[in-house]
Amino acid sequence: MKIDAQPFAYEFELPHAALVLIDMQRDFIEPGGFGETLGNDVSLLEAIVPATQAVLAAWRAAGGLVVHTREAHRPDLSDCPPAKRDRGNPSLRIGDVGPMGRILVAGEPGNQIIDALAPIDGELVIDKPGKGMFYATGLHETLRSRGITHLLFGGVTTEVCVQTSMREANDRGYEGLLLEDCTESYFPRFKAAAIEMIRAQGAIVGWTAPSAALHAALAAG
Ligand code: C5J
C-alpha cells in the first residue's frame, strides 16, 4: 500500500504494519482528568477522537494489528522515578487520588482508554512507565516476533509521548508515519513544530499524512 505522505510517499504491507494509538486515556482527554488539573484545555485533544475512531474502524476492517498504549505506573510507583513525580508544581502528582482515581496508575478509571477507542480482543495494550512506548515494555520483541516493520501513529500528546515513541521506533529500525489529524497537543504550536521536525531532512524521524490519505490507501487495497 502507498500513502500520499510528506516528505514523500510512504509504502507498507498491511501484515507487517501496526496502527499505534498513544495514550488515548481518560486522564489526558476527558474533562476533570489529570490533563485538566495541569491547567490544560482538554477540548483540543477531544477534537481528534472522531478522526481517530474512523481510522481505527478502517484499520480493523482491513485486518491490521492495533497497539494501544497507556502511560501507567504500578500502584506502588516502583516504576515512577521521583524526578518524574516531583517535576513541576502540579496540584496533583502521579499516584495521588484525583477525580478519576489515582493519577497515571494502572487499573484506575482515569487510566483507561476512552470508550470511543476501547481496545478489542486481539489488540495489544501496552502500559508504559515512560514517555516512549519501548522503554521498559518489551514491545520491540513483541512487534519483531510478529514481523512488524511499519508503524502508523496517532494519539497524544504530539510532542511528548507520540514524538518520543516515534523517535524510539526510528532508532529501532521501524518506518513510522504520523497521522496528522489523529494526534494533538495541548499546545497547537508544539504539534505543528513536531510534525515539521519529524518529516524534515528527508523523513529524519518519519513521515506524516492526513488520515484521508490512509483511508484512500486502504480503499485502493
Ligand atoms: C504527557 C503524553 N504529555 N502521553 N504524556 O505527559 O504525552
Description:
The protein is α/β, with parallel strands linked by helices. Helix content is 35%, strand content 21%. It has a 6-stranded parallel beta sheet with strand order 7-4-3-8-9-10, sandwiched between helices. The chain has a two-stranded antiparallel sheet with strand order 1-2. Helix 4 runs parallel beside helix 9 and helix 7 packs parallel to helix 8 (188-203). It is globular, with a radius of gyration of 17 Å. The termini are close together. Bound molecules: dicarbonimidic diamide (C5J). Dicarbonimidic diamide (C5J) binds at residues 23, 28, 71, 156-157, 160-161.
Write the layout of secondary structure elements.
Blueprint: E1 2-3, E2 10-11, E3 17-22, H1 26-29, H2 34-37, H3 43-46, H4 49-62, E4 65-71, H5 82-86, E5 97-98, E6 101-102, E7 124-128, H6 139-145, E8 150-156, H7 158-171, E9 175-184, H8 188-203, E10 207-209, H9 211-220
Parallel strand pairs: 3-4, 3-8, 4-7, 8-9, 9-10
Antiparallel strand pairs: 1-2, 5-6
Helix pairs in contact: 4-9, 7-8
Dicarbonimidic diamide (C5J) is lined by residues 23, 28, 71, 156-157, 160-161.
Percentage of residues in strands? 15-25%
Sheet with the most strands, sense and barrel status: 6 strands, parallel
Query: From the helix content, strand content and strand pairing, which structural class follows?
Result: alpha/beta
What global shape is seen?
A: globular
Work out the helix count.
9
Report the order of strands and helices: EEEHHHHEHEEEHEHEHEH
Number of strands: 10
Describe the strand arrangement of the main beta sheet, using strand numbers. 7-4-3-8-9-10
Q: How far from one another are the termini?
A: 7 Å
Mean pLDDT: 96
Approximately how much helix is present in the residues?
25-40%
